[in-house]
């Protein structure tokens, strides 16, 4: 589904990654690990179509995502470091706005339930704590109805409850069938990609709330600093 060939990226005369190739099939999960500054966010932004790699190409169902971005843009959702929410809107208004952009109003309830946003729906985004802000941003994954999720540090600022909710979302999105693919960046230049297995906690009802939106959900790419939390 997503085919990456010989990706390289140089920034400020420093090679961040070189000749990185991997394929991501539906239902796969890719975990990107590496030291601070090694290029994880840069790689994700390249895969999202936001930062062309120095060389190599990325194809989504045989379409180069930089030459033919339209199909790809509507097929993926990206949650970066910045939550990209509107300060002056309430939580509900933010979610409604995203659903309006994607024409997915029928997914609003599932998104609210899955992130358990009911207590803050009428609060202005600017008045929320960091953890709640992150939860609101993650709700965008659900209303996007995207095949591919890119999440940069998904667990940043989350408490244990929210952490479990996000693990559930990841599990449901990828249907937990296939082994993960782990891409590791070491010392900024050495790249390896291999299969690994992540164990997830038992789900706690989120699946039911997500039922209607499940069909379109297939692949997840995450950058994570705390790999061991998924494995233990
Ligand atoms: N806008 C930019 N312009 C130039 N260089 C940048 C820019 N953003 C990041 N860099 C550089 O690219 C390198 C990789 O940064 P990146 O944010 O991809 O790393 P990371 O692995 O995600 O780091 P962290 O774990 O700290 O979030 C760093 O050396 C950084 O200084």
UniProtKB/TrEMBL annotation:
Residue ranges constituting the ABC transporter domain according to the UniProt record: 2-229
GO molecular function: ATP binding; ATP hydrolysis activity; transmembrane transporter activity
Entries under Pfam families matching the protein: ABC_tran
Keyword rRNA-binding: no
Keyword check for Transmembrane: no
InterPro entries hit by this protein: AAA+_ATPase (IPR003593), ABC_transporter-like_ATP-bd (IPR003439), ABC_transporter-like_CS (IPR017871), ABC_transptr_haem_export_CcmA (IPR005895), P-loop_NTPase (IPR027417)
Biological process (GO), any one: cytochrome complex assembly
Record keywords: ATP-binding, Cytochrome c-type biogenesis, Hydrolase, Membrane, Nucleotide-binding, Translocase, Transport
Alphabetical list of Gene3D superfamilies matching this protein: P-loop containing nucleotide triphosphate hydrolases
Stored SUPFAM superfamilies: P-loop containing nucleoside triphosphate hydrolases (SSF52540)
Listed NCBIfam families: ccmA
Protein name: ABC transporter-like,P-loop containing nucleoside triphosphate hydrolase,AAA+ ATPase domain,ABC
């Amino acid at each position: 589904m997503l085919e990456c060939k010989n990706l390289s990226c140089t920034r400020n005369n420093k090679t961040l990654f070189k000749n990185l190739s991997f394929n991501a099939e539906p239902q796969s999960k890719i975990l990107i690990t590496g030291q601070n500054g090694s290029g994880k966010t840069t790689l994700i932004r390249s895969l999202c179509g936001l930062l062309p790699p120095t060389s190599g190409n990325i194809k989504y169902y045989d379409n180069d995502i930089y030459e033919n971005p339209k199909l790809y843009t509507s097929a993926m959702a990206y949650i970066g470091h910045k939550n990209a929410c509107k300060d002056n809107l309430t939580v509900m208004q933010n979610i409604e706005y995203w659903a309006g952009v994607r024409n997915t109003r029928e997914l609003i309830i599932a998104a609210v339930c899955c992130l358990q946003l009911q207590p803050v729906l009428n609060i202005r985004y600017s008045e929320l704590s960091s953890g709640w802000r992150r939860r609101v941003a993650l709700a965008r994954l659900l209303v996007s109805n995207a095949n591919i999720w890119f999440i940069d540090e998904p667990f940043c600022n989350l408490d244990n409850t929210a952490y479990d909710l996000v693990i559930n979302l990841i599990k449901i999105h990828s249907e937990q069938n296939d082994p993960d693919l782990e891409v590791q960046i070491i010392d900024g230049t050495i790249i390896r990609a291999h299969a690994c297995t992540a164990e997830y906690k038992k789900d706690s009802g989120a699946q039911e709330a997500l039922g209607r939106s499940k069909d379109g959900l297939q692949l997840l790419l995450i950058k994570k600093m705390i790999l061991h939390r998924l494995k233990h």
